[in-house]
Design goal:
Elements (H helix, E strand, L loop, with lengths): L8 H7 L38 H4 L5 E4 L34 E2 L13 E7 L12 E3 L2 E5 L5 E5 L5 E5 L11 E3 L8 E6 L2 E5 L15 E3 L16 E3 L2 E5 L5 E5 L5 E5 L27 E4 L4 E5 L21 E6 L5 E6 L15 E7 L2 E9 L5 E5 L9 E5 L13 E3 L22 H11 L16 E4 L11 E2 L4 E7 L2 E4 L1 E3 L13 H9 L1 H4 L21 H10 L12 H11 L18 E3 L19 E7 L4 E7 L4 H5 L14 E3 L3 E4 L6 E6 L5 E6 L9 E5 L2 E8 L13 E6 L7
Parallel strand pairs: 2-33
Antiparallel strand pairs: 1-23, 3-39, 4-5, 5-6, 6-7, 8-9, 9-10, 10-11, 12-13, 13-14, 14-15, 16-17, 17-18, 18-19, 20-21, 21-22, 23-24, 25-28, 26-27, 27-31, 29-30, 31-32, 33-34, 34-35, 35-36, 37-38, 38-39
Helix pairs in contact: 4-7
Amino acid sequence: MNCPRKNALLGSLVLGLCVSASAQEKTNSPEPAAAQSSPAVSAQKHDYWAVEDPKEREKLPLYKTIPAAKPEELTPASGLPKDETFLTWHRSHGDNGGRRYSALNQINRENVAKLQQAWIYHSGDGSNNLQCNPIVVSNLMIAPTAGGYMAGVNAENGKEVWRFKPDGRPAFRGLIYWAGSDTAKERILFCAGKYLYALDSGTGNLITSFGNSGSALLPGKSEPGSGAASAGPAMFQQIIVVPGFEKDVWGFDAATGKQLWTFHTVPHPGEFGYETWDHTEDYAANCWAGMAMDDVRGIAYIGTACAKPNFTGVTHLGDNLFANCLIALDARTGKRLWHFQLIPHDLWDLDFSSPPNLATITRDGKKVDVVAVCNKGADTLLLDRVTGKPIFPFRMRRAPTSDLPGEVTAPYQPDLELPERFNKLVFTAHDLTDRTPEAAAFAATAFKSVTTGFYRPPSLGHPNLFYGIDGGAEWSGCCVDPEGRLYISANNLAWMISIFRDDDPRDDLSKPKTPGRIVYEMACAPCHGLNKMGIGVAPPLRGLRSRLNDTDLVRQIRTGKNGMPAFSTMSDADAKAVTDYLLFREGGSQAPPEKSERPRYGFTGYPRFLDNEGYPASKPPWGTLNCLDLNTGKLLWTVPLGEYPELTAQGTPKTGTDFRSGAIVTAGGLLFCSGTRDSKIRAFDKDNGAELWSGTLPWVGSAPPTTYMINGRQYVVIASTGNKLGRANEFGDAYVAFALPENKPT
């Protein structure tokens, strides 16, 4: 297949990383020709029903590498922020840099074992999974409630002071406090539904001079359960930067609510990057996890997701900028300063799933300002904060082709040596569980049916098994200390993604059941589902006629295959009836639908690779807490995060569990982390990962903790509202605060 992007990818990565904003006359404006990304496949010339040639791919070099920035190219540290910056928690994720670091040290390694519950706040207005890291302003904790309110809660005793009901789910994944200016009073700012709100932090009243009597309309659509913006915003001076849930990034005046600029994460015609799509998508390259801001330089850092739909790129061939990118924007104008794409044409849903973290590291004896961001595939992108050049050589490895008609894969995908990965991406037979003989046999049988490998694209008829999708890193993000160590809580579960040709006619369930459908429901539906979409490792049977003929289908029914049992005693009549049903021939010949311009594919959801008892079918640990030294790129330690109490009681070493939360780090030498299935919040020694304390929560911790000090007493507070992991999906309404015992006079 003749694809002009095949040999241009590396050049686009090397040349397209760093571009001065002065070279652009408008947001997303074209770059000089030498720096443009590789062109997408021409919609006029491409055969959308062709299949890639793996032999041609194998002629390419195995590796290509983008060199690391030279020492003289690295940006010297600004020296800011100072330690005193880290004494407050005025933004979700701690500060604009998303560090989630506190200089408080009253609670430390020596006394953390004495930590006890100080108060608990129940909003009493419902139950929900809250994903917002609360902020603390003066003596108030400000956070969303399970019932969709914003609340100001006395952070010393847990008593509610005020609440406000916005239009939509408030502060889904973050909010921020702005101290105001000479002409504008202080306020908290957050998104809910299709609006950006401004409230008085002390009273919860709307700031009526902002926007339209307290709220400004966001340009994006309002999606159920999220809104036009889900990620927490960040501030530079008087500008608040808001990432859109579906795409794009916006800048607003924090005093007036006036929209100042828009950056298109999916470029418009004439903008740089537009040529990297042969057809752009309405929902793509969105920043759903979070962002960061350089307070000194006014640079906003946006980590984006893949293009949609997931797992198939036939509808949007090309490298797809600015999907899977870390983008640096001038917060004043919204103009792009540079971008770095980690995964071109992502077919695995391996988004940047964690907010960027700003850090200062030491390279060649000098302090250097960097930005780090992690993705679902357990890669850490580490770049110079100003130039966007990689700190370590960025190695790309030749990737396999797709066997799907119409798909055009990127020839190279990331295979980083440094920073070291904090989880696996490729699943191998060595990873299969050995927890019990029964679990091992179950997993081994299922493994026979899957495809797997380094950036192996999905195929028809077999689930594609790989780590990621729901971690590596999570939306709850990482934290970083002043020494340049990044602490990452990570899921380590495998997922089986099945795709199918989606051009079959739909069954008309209002009509009487045919003989073939009756046989199907008795023999096939228990594994493949009444809707033919497949269950677990059983593949979908929609689109079956595109990959099997009568002879192959009957043979498989009779003899079985991999995990599919043989139906050797099925009568010839029943075999013919179910074959006719699956191939849409019952009741006479049925004409196939007209051939579309491009093949249409769907996928069957997100099934995990589980054993016969519902535990992960891979070897533990299934959830980990990790310490990555950004100075060297080396992992310093990894420990299991969480446990299944019933397995621990059986003598199984701690396995870790999947989770939905992240850690904070303090000057007391501690990491606090929660979110695991066992409804615990834990404290770890940040130097070695040793667990020093744990406390039980009423529901699973659902967001990263916050720490603060009032009247000389340090607190750690966390949203405890449950998630999809624990207690049969129960949800709650609590915030729980912990502190050391008070020294009361006798």
